[in-house]
Design a protein that fits this description.
It comes from Salix udensis. This protein is mainly alpha-helical. About 75% of the residues lie in helices and about 0% in strands.
């Protein structure tokens, strides 16, 4: 079932203890594991999917002028090309859980990168607008699945004491892909950029043959020998995996029992109305927060604001990685609610500042301020938006574990 795969991934990523799961200092000490080469390599291979996602988000802006000029697209035609990736993403999000359960985490990533590479090649060799749109749609389907399966795979292969650090690399690699695409896109043509975007896909397709499958997925299917072999390979030959293996089996059994007892409809009980409205409202409103428009049309915004179309996007790209690191540090230092309030207010003020800067173009005395205010507004907006990327974490503090799992499944499948 799709729900089972989603539940396992979320439980292993960051959920509180499951009902009946015991936590003692002695067992925590026994479950301490160290970083092994296989664990690092497996994580890096999975993160190629995150890098691919970043490339797809960052592609539209640097490619805009070239595509419109070469293929003679109108603004509306290019807008459709830029936005169709989200339609593909919704399709991929709905398929992600069932696909990951059916063919495994590794097989899902492999299939997604085949689809993604086909999409990039369709864009690179497109002669007509419909070929561009098909390629963009395929990329969207692939990243819709990858955004689910990559963090789930990483959380399922890492031990508890290292899980937070490893899963945080997911967002960092998304920003790296975004930054590299912006930077390279200012140097090469849009067709060359599409071909370059296939590199992480090819790399992951090849390397997936050499990394182990998720132990949790194998255990769920009852493939005990493969489960223990995969876990042993990830933890090292000399490591004692007996305690962790028992914990994984127990957690899977509890999840199966919980899944049988609960349904998504339980989320609509009156006692959860406040949390549902606030939590889903935060996610839904964030979707209309303007980040996608800024990312997809950054080059056009800078051009109309008289910001250098070569240096502006490069500055924006170079700040992606440090701002992502700063975001992680801020999340650890402040409460979720405080951070959400400050970030939402800052985002609103920054977009207002950008809009105001365009109004200054009508004034002879103030029009010189437009480039500076636009650049500052966009950069600060991007930093503020990154700190509000996970409003669903608010819900994790309010729900019981099993209801939070079903709630997050609801978000993934219907509010992508």
């Amino acid at each position: 079932m799709a729900g089972d795969g989603i539940e396992e991934g979320l439980e292993s990523a960051s959920s509180p203890l499951l009902p009946g799961e015991k936590s003692t200092s002695s067992s925590a000490t026994r479950n301490q594991h160290y970083i092994t080469p296989v664990l690092v390599c497996s994580t890096l291979v999975a993160l190629c999917g995150s890098f691919t996602y970043g490339c797809s988000v960052g592609y539209s802006s640097p490619a805009e002028s070239g595509i419109m000029e070469d293929l003679g697209l109108s603004v509306s035609a290019y807008s459709f090309f830029g936005s169709i990736v989200t339609i593909g993403g919704m399709v991929g999000a709905i398929l992600s859980g069932k696909m990951a359960d059916l063919v495994g985490r590794r097989g899902t990533m492999w299939a997604c990168q085949i689809i993604c590479m086909a999409g990039w090649l369709a864009i690179a060799f497109a002669k007509k607008a419909w070929c561009l749109d098909i390629g963009r749609f395929l990329v969207g389907v692939a990243i819709g699945i990858l955004t689910y399966v990559v963090p789930v795979y990483i959380s399922e292969i890492t031990p508890k004491n290292l899980r937070g650090r490893f899963t945080s690399a997911n967002q960092l690699l998304v920003c790296c892909g975004f930054a590299v695409t912006y930077f390279v896109g200012s140097i090469v043509s849009w067709r060359a950029l599409s071909l370059i975007a296939t590199i992480p896909s090819i790399l992951q397709i090849v390397c997936l043959f050499f990394v182990p499958e998720s132990p949790r997925w194998l255990a769920k299917l009852g493939r005990q020998k493969e489960f223990e072999a995969s876990l042993q390979r990830l933890r090292g030959i000399e490591s004692d995996i007996s305690e962790e293996a028992v914990d994984i089996r127990d957690a899977i059994e509890i999840l199966k029992q919980t899944s049988a007892e609960t349904r998504t409809l339980e989320l609509f009980q009156r006692r959860y109305a406040y949390v549902i409205i606030v939590g889903e409202g935060l996610i839904l409103l964030q979707t209309f927060g303007g980040n996608s428009a800024v990312s997809y049309y950054l080059g056009t915004i800078f051009a109309k604001a008289n910001v250098s179309t070569s240096s502006g996007p490069i500055i924006f790209a170079l700040l992606q990685i440090p701002t992502s690191i700063a975001t992680v540090l801020l999340m650890d230092s402040f409460g979720r609610r405080t951070l959400l309030m400050v970030s939402a207010t800052t985002s609103c003020l920054c977009l207002f500042l950008v809009g105001l800067s365009f109004c200054f173009q009508e004034s002879h005395n103030l029009k010189e301020l437009t480039p500076i205010l636009t650049l500052v507004g966009i950069l600060v907006f991007d930093l503020a938006w990154k700190t509000t990327k996970n409003p669903e974490l608010f819900l994790q503090k309010k729900f019981k574990t099993h209801l939070y799992i079903n709630q997050h499944k609801f978000i993934l499948e219907y509010l992508y």
